[in-house]
Amino acid sequence: MSDGTDKYIVADEAKPIAKQLLKEIHQRLKDIRIVYVFVLEPIKEKGREVFGKVSVKSGIDAFLVNEFSDQPQEDFFLLQINKSVWDFYNETQRLGGLDSLLTSCSTSQGKLGVKPYDFMEHLESFARNGDWNHDLTEMKKLAVSPLLPGVETEGKGKKKDRVTLVKTKAADGTVTPIATP
User: Fold this and answer.
1) How far is it, in rounded angstroms, from Cα 28 to Cα 25?
2) How does DSSP assign 80-121, residue by residue?
3) Which tens digit of pLDDT belongs to each residue from 111-166?
4) Sign of the CA dihedral with 110 first, then 116, 122, and 123 last
């Protein structure tokens, strides 16, 4: 039975990039302890492999980690980075991934927390790093051409932003109305 120690290693490669991001962009985090680890097994969210995830370590977890180090007794952020994705990504993608994880770190009301991933919350990270991963590339394509072929919008006034399937267009060009509620 594994004790789990073979699943994690210190992410020394990530620290210089993160240090640069903390100095240039995420100054709000400069005085907060952040631990970076590589996870040797895939990190998944909603069944999909992701670059990494952020959590806050507090209570007994923070006590135990701090007890066996020279760090002060305090809560801290843990950034877990998917090692296989890190190895696959280039420097620009790694920077984008770390920037996104650090953007998720919240210090609201003097308390550490993790903001759920939301495109609007991470818009500044996207603006800085572009579409550094496949999901962002797909979102960028949708922003340019948001509707599927043969789908049109319906609505005026308050309903104008609602997308409803009103008709479809077949490959031969025939349009078929669809009953909508």
Assistant:
1) 9
2) EEEHHHHHHS-HHHHHHHHHHHHHTEE-GGG--EEPPP-TTT
3) 999 987 766 666 676 667 666 655 665 655 656 665 555 555 555 555 544 444 44
4) negative
